[in-house]
Design brief:
Length: 465
């Protein structure tokens, strides 16, 4: 029996893999294979001939020589490892917010800025520099020089403390300044930072004191929810439909703050099918309250939770709902999963925008003037409207589901994950928001609705091929 491969532990001291600012060159006699990181999970390779010209295919002599062929296979495997490591390190750096992570600049410069792999991430992020009681400065690295949001050069000294900048630390004007600056610099951030969602206490949460119902009563696909919690370092035990336990708690420990955050999850089943209960896992669950606990499982008043902790935890929970909600499933209305909950699907699919969707809307507002569909596209409340040749469409900015004018007829388009969406080829201000790419992809598709050949879509548009 084959041994199960042990998952590699993410370390704060990763190899630099011989990279120089995200690039590596491997020699094959007088040819060279150049590797370049382009983004999270994305890279490019090219062969460089002795005369410096680029060759797309593998040189014939490499294929014929067993030693070189073996070296090429090992090199390709290393390139895959580098991309995997980059994703892991991106996730680790993003957790700096909840780990109170900060460094003195001398250490940060050596271990991050001068690191062949980590520099690819760090130079696209905004960092905060603090020294004693002096006012902190936020800056980003441009052409090896630190610059503030207005482009002023900044030269930190080695004793300054460095931490990852968060928009909750500053006024809205500074956040907007950073968004403008990143747009000018054409920087796509590997972590949503300048566009990061900020969650502040609401009056309802102040009144309930020890819990939040902001993200309650959502129906989630349990398998997808469980995968998301693991990816965000939460712990969650999936519910089955035997019925003995009808509630579980997704939680994350925050030792640096001496807190634990909890998201309560309830079972969701069809009471008419109780006789069919077994130990299989539930397909769907329903969400409940968010709360915070201190040592000894003592419930913490919401107003006493540090602002950055509250914001980051609610952001995680919003992400869980935003991705795993059945409201995102374009097939739900047809196959109905649980027909009695169709009202939830409709309210989520076309209802008020979540904070994540509001951020997506802001990004779309900035992007539209630069797109070729700008003359037939406009933001209208919760929707991106597209005036096609055949009909006009309303793409919900949150769920990405579509309604067609004039009678708000639902249009079901199932994304083809095997193909690159046009939205993925556009410059986006941050990585990791598939919803933004889907909205843009659907917008480009529907802008040329008279050229659509997919029979399932054509039949819904009301025209024949």
């Amino acid at each position: 029996m084959a041994k199960r491969r042990r998952k590699k532990k993410v370390t704060d001291k990763p190899s630099n893999y011989g990279l120089s600012e995200g690039c590596k060159i491997v020699e094959f006699n007088d040819y060279a294979l150049e590797f370049e990181l382009l983004g999270i999970g994305r890279s490019a390779t090219r062969w460089i001939k002795p005369d410096g010209k680029v060759q797309k295919s593998v040189p014939a002599f490499v294929k014929k020589d067993p030693d070189l062929a073996k070296k090429l296979a090992e090199t390709k495997e290393e390139f895959k490892t580098i991309k995997t490591e980059l994703t892991a390190q991106r996730n680790r750096i993003e957790r700096f917010y909840l780990h109170k992570t900060q460094f003195d600049y001398a250490f940060f410069k050596k271990q991050y800025i001068q690191h062949g792999l980590l520099i690819f991430l760090c130079e696209k992020l905004i960092w905060t520099f603090a020294e004693g009681e002096k006012k902190a400065t936020s800056a980003i690295r441009v052409n090896d020089i630190w610059q503030t949001a207005d482009g002023t050069e900044f030269h930190p000294n080695d004793t300054m403390e460095v931490r990852l900048w968060h928009p909750i630390e500053c006024e809205v004007e500074q956040v907007m300044a950073w968004r403008n600056r990143l747009e000018v610099l054409d920087i796509q951030q590997p972590i949503k930072q300048a566009y990061r969602e900020v969650y502040l206490l609401t009056d309802a949460e102040i009144n309930t004191r020890v819990y939040s119902n902001r993200m309650a009563a959502h129906i989630l696909k349990q398998g997808q929810f469980a995968a998301l919690t693991r990816a965000r370092a939460w712990k969650y035990r999936m519910l089955n439909n035997f019925g003995e336990v009808d509630c579980e708690i997704a939680h994350i420990n925050l030792p640096e703050y001496e807190l634990t955050a909890e998201y309560w999850i309830n079972s969701l089943y069809d009471e008419e099918e109780e006789d069919d209960w077994d130990f299989t896992l539930l397909d769907y669950v329903v969400t409940d309250q968010v709360k915070f606990l201190a040592a000894g499982d003592k419930t913490v008043n919401m107003v006493d939770v540090p602002k950055i902790v509250f914001s980051e935890i609610m952001r995680d929970v919003d992400l869980f709902v935003g991705v795993a909600s059945v409201g995102n499933d374009p097939n739900w209305q047809d196959n109905g999963g649980l027909p009695q909950y169709r009202e939830y699907w409709e309210s989520y699919s076309f209802g008020d925008l979540t904070q994540v969707a509001k951020t997506r809307k802001e990004a779309l507002t900035r992007l539209l003037p630069r797109l070729k569909i700008k003359d037939i596209a406009r933001i209208d409340g919760r929707f991106l409207r597209i005036k096609g040749k055949i009909r006009e469409y309303k793409i919900h900015i949150g769920s990405t589901n579509i309604l067609m004018e004039p009678n708000d007829q639902y249009l079901c388009i199932v994304p083809d994950r095997s193909k690159d969406a046009k939205g993925d080829k556009l410059f986006l201000p941050f990585e990791g928001d598939r919803g933004l790419s889907l909205v843009l992809s659907k917008a480009f598709l529907l802008a040329d609705d008279d050229k659509i050949t997919d029979k399932t879509i054509v039949s819904q548009l009301g025209r024949g091929l």
